[in-house]
Amino acid sequence: MYLDCSVSALVKLRAQATALFREGIAASDPEQAVISALETKTDEIAAARRVILIAFGKAACPMARAALPFVGDKLVTAVAVTNFENLAEIEGVEVISGGHPLPDEGSIRGAEVIERAALSAETDDLVLVLVSGGGSALTCAPAAGIALADKIALNDTLIRCGADISEINAVRQLFSRLKGGRLAQLASRAKVLSLILSDVPGDDVGTVASGPTARPSATQAEAIAILDRYDLVKTLSPALKAHLDLLVERDEVAPSFDHVENLVIGSNGISLQRVMHSAEANYPVVVKADDWLSGDVSDVAKTLHRMAVFAASQRGPVAIVAGGEPTVRVAGNGKGGRNQELALRFALLNEWTSIKRPWVFLSGGTDGRDGPTDAAGAIVDAGSTTWMRKLGCNPVALLQNNDSYHALASSGDLLMTGATGTNVADLQILLMQ
């Protein structure tokens, strides 16, 4: 523990970090983002004969709610598929709960309803698609012959092998009826306007929710190469392997996307800029760690800790902020998520090389849920691991079992926000006095 740091100073730092995190979430508020975008699209809505509204992802409900006043009585079909934590009733919209991070029967039903809605689109119709993070799992439409269990096993394997989100989505597209632009192709007779809340690096519309309305982010050959890179082909179920063999036999045909407009209306970058701007009020020096944090979580923790040690040698209060999604290789059977593991690793690194100032480090998912847990992430300080040990926890052993949740719960360092209704990846905030 940093012995010269008063409790009140740490309480203040924690409060500031949490407030900045919530400001980052607010910067990509899905309702306001949809309103701002549709205010520029009133002519296109007016020109449409009918409007079909399709929303899916963790922000599906607020996005759909914001769109309704713009489409008015032209609306003929409206469906929203979201996770249970963000489920809300919306008059005139069929709302369906799907599974996340792993798809379930609700995800299958939601995808089927979306598929029917898209197929019903006719010439001069407008299909308004509202996409947010989590949509890949929430709308599960396996290709013919593939069962839900096959998709769940594939998704779990991809997450555990350490593949990043772009790689995961590229592979998912191989086995889906909606992903990789296939949703847009179902509505090829109509105009498709897709408003996208991005949770991926570079705001690639072909990657968010596995790109249902965008040209595929990876070719079929590139996606198969990802399976080879992680030695996953041999782990595929017979049904998945049979479908993969069928794809290899076929020649890829590039479909047209001339009828589609994809607009990114919110992103991690937008949230990060808000955090940086707000931090300047109390921190003369605000450092952006990277455009997008990626790679193994242990390497990310080391990079951020080195930055903190160096910053501590400078004068005055310092804030270091970052955004992205590190990856975790799951070797144990514990409970946690990438943000919790990043925070715990950071705290343990500080035991070896101490940051010579009062500090706090927050890492959290903007959706309010880190992995399969009820925590958004964690917020730690120099005393966190000391408290864990005093309370009978061995943080190193728990980390080795990928059980960061219980280590952080013991020290009271879990970041609990509840579902936020948005999803623009993760934010990391380090504050030091």
UniProtKB/TrEMBL annotation:
GO terms for cellular component: cytoplasm. Gene3D superfamilies: Glycerate kinase, MOFRL-like N-terminal domain (3.40.50.10180), MOFRL domain (3.40.1480.10). It holds the Pfam family MOFRL. GO terms for molecular function: glycerate kinase activity. Residues 319-426 form the MOFRL domain. Residues 17-244 form the MOFRL-associated domain. InterPro entries: GK-like_C_sf, GK_N_sf, MOFRL, MOFRL_assoc_dom, MOFRL_protein. Transmembrane segments: none annotated. This is DUF4147 domain-containing protein. It comes from Aminobacter anthyllidis. The lineage of its organism: Bacteria, Pseudomonadati, Pseudomonadota, Alphaproteobacteria, Hyphomicrobiales.
